[in-house]
Amino acid sequence: MKLNVPPYIKDIKPYVPGKPIEEVEREYKISGSVKLASNENPLGPSPMAVKALTDSLSKLNRYPDGSGYYLKKKISKKLNIVPDSVVLGSGSDEIIGMLARAFLTPEDEVLMISPSFLMYEIMTRISGARPVFVPLNGLDIDLDAMADAVTPSTRMIFITNPNNPTGAMVKHDRLKSFLDRVPQDIILVIDEAYIEFVRDKSCANGLFLCTGDRPVVVLRTFSKAYGLAGLRIGYGVMPPEIAGILDRVRQPFNTSLPAQAAAAAALDDNLFLDRTLRLVHEEIDFMRAELKRGEEISFPTQANFFLVDVRTDANLFFTEMLKHGVIIRSMVSYGFPEYIRVSAGLRDENLKFLEAFKKVATKLQCKNNAGENI
Length: 374
Ligand SMILES: Cc1ncc(COP(=O)(O)O)c(C=O)c1O
Known about the structure:
With 374 residues, the protein is of the alpha/beta class. It has helices spanning 7-10, 21-28, 47-56, 69-79, 92-103, 119-126, 143-148, 172-181, 240-249, 257-268, 270-291, 314-323, 347-363, and strands at residues 34-35, 86-89, 109-114, 130-135, 154-160, 187-191, 216-221, 234-237, 305-309, 326-327, 329-330, 339-343. The site of pyridoxal-5'-phosphate (PLP) has 13 residues, from helix 5. Pyridoxal-5'-phosphate is lined by residues 39, 91-93, 117, 160, 164, 191, 193, 221, 223, 229, 234.
């Protein structure tokens, strides 16, 4: 077939999601496997969200409210902002896409951390713009290097706080002084997909920078702490002028009726949110402590996942873990050849991870700096 595909589209490497559990089990002839690979909520969805979703099903013959009136009102009340500064998306992914469609041209550059969430690069390339990667400093976001990388062509900057896949966060005063160094016409997008999990009080809260006099956009999602990843609903908070531009490129019914209903109910489900945060914090601490034998091999995190240095090829480690029915993420494609990323699961799932980890590390003879088995 002869297709005329623009070169900047042809060059895009499609996002590779983890395989479905059923497929992994079939391939490796295993059952009862656990998935700790996609930073999902191990408790399931918020029960109040499920009830609201079920109640909404009898109205599926109707189009959803394209303006998302009630959900936007609820979000704005909770965050103490005006409803016109909220844009809903089919996941926060979609808001990244809208920003790229609305503001980027092939002449533009977009700054992003490397490694970070892959959708920034994909959406930038779809617009024909050029992604510019700013490496981490160790595992930390290097805001000085980011500010130094700004050129007259820079149109947008993505900061992920806390970052995926590292779990590292940016402090408020650092982000504020970074913003002072950024020219006024550059859109700063602060992706806070994991902000609910943050324990460090000095972590930046992008909403304080989203005051209306600067083009700052904060992305939030219902996919993680609220347990609604499968429903695809997230939002952006931004000055109403930017929201007005996104409304020009947004599909009129981009978020479904059940998703709007469930998200609105999830916002009220404080009990579920509290349970989620308690579980994630306890389980992250538990797993990291269990992995530490003499030497620390995992890294501190502010999110619902953490990195582990397995001291061997992480792809190999990943495949061996699969054979034990444990799905985690290899960080090879993120530029960390010996790191894996593990999401917090339920205690049983985490015990299964730890048991498999021990077996795989022994089989692959993974050693710490002191030459002991990890
Ligand atoms: C940093 C970051 N931003 C955004 C998203 C996308 O979230 P959503 O499900 O709302 O599209 C993810 C999902 O993993 C993420 O890690």
